[in-house]
Specification:
Layout (H helix, E strand, L loop, with lengths): L2 H24 L7 E4 L2 E3 L1 H14 L7 E4 L11 E9 L1 H5 L6 E8 L2 E9 L4 E6 L3 E4 L2 E2 L12 E4 L9 H14 L2 E3 L4 H9 L5 E5 L3 H13 L3 E3 L12 E5 L3 H11 L1
């Protein structure tokens, strides 16, 4: 299996889906919005972009399964599985905020071996494959090399459901607000992970996440030289619904999270 070639095909698929999303954004109306939950939004744009990706990627790896956010195709986990978020940052898209992505990962078992995140509004395509490094628009990228939280800006997300551990989360924010160069909540976990991989953020942490939010980003951060764990420093970050991804500052960021979680 040539992962470089496969990743190139994924990039093309993501760019095509992104072009569709960009076109639809020009005339999008909130009357097309559907509610999956109180603050969990979806539209025909998410669904059609996902269908495009499934149709294009289906033949790329014979027998591969699919795990997709909008479930427009049969869901199955196989030896090789595509994990797809056709529009990560749907709420941003709907409200005209320019931070939303196409995110695609190819998994071998539970390991991401190829990942692409296309940030549509900025026309920035982050991609990589196992053993091949990580790139932004054909240029190699690396995680930040700062080792201390007071040297970094960090990204996170806010929960839209399951508020049972909100006080723990707020305690983490409290410590980081007082001891870092700032916190950002942009509304797309995929973009946040890509920004960690490219060294823009020192790190990213969040809980209540799904595999399609982070799978491609996990590959990018690792290939860019970073570390990815769950909140306890373990490896249950893909399906465990919590993640800490960072460059050299990972140990210090993880300790802050563990202190309060």
């Amino acid at each position: 299996m040539n992962l470089e070639v496969i990743t190139g095909q994924v990039v093309e698929a993501a760019l095509d889906a992104g072009a569709f999303i960009r076109r639809e954004r020009k005339n999008f109306s909130k009357k097309h919005v559907e509610l999956k939950g109180k603050s969990d939004l979806v539209s025909y744009v998410d669904k059609e972009a996902e269908k495009m990706l499934v149709d294009t990627l289906g033949p790329v790896v014979e027998g591969a399964g699919f795990l997709t956010e909008e479930e427009t195709t049969s869901q199955s986990k196989e030896e090789y599985t595509w994990i797809i978020d056709p529009l990560d940052g749907t709420t941003n898209f709907i409200h005209g905020l320019p931070n939303f992505c196409v995110s695609v990962a190819l998994m071998h078992g539970n390991e991401a071996i190829s990942g692409v995140i296309y940030e549509v509004a900025n026309d920035e395509c982050f991609y990589g494959w196992k053993g091949g490094g990580a790139y932004l628009n054909e240029e190699p990228i690396r995680v930040a090399d700062e080792k201390h939280i007071n040297e970094c800006v960090f990204a996170t997300g806010f929960p839209i459901y399951n508020f049972e551990r909100l006080e723990n989360y707020l305690a983490i924010l409290n410590e980081l607000m007082k001891n870092t160069r700032g916190l950002r909540r942009m509304g797309s976990a995929a973009a946040d992970m890509a920004y960690v991989a490219s060294g823009r953020y020192g790190g990213f942490f969040e809980y209540n996440l799904n595999p399609w939010d982070v799978a491609a980003g996990v590959l990018l951060v690792k290939e860019a030289g970073g570390l990815v764990t769950d909140f306890q420093g373990g490896e249950n970050y893909l399906f465990g619904r919590e993640i800490v991804a960072a460059g050299a500052v990972h140990p210090e960021l993880l300790q802050v999270v563990k202190n309060h979680w």
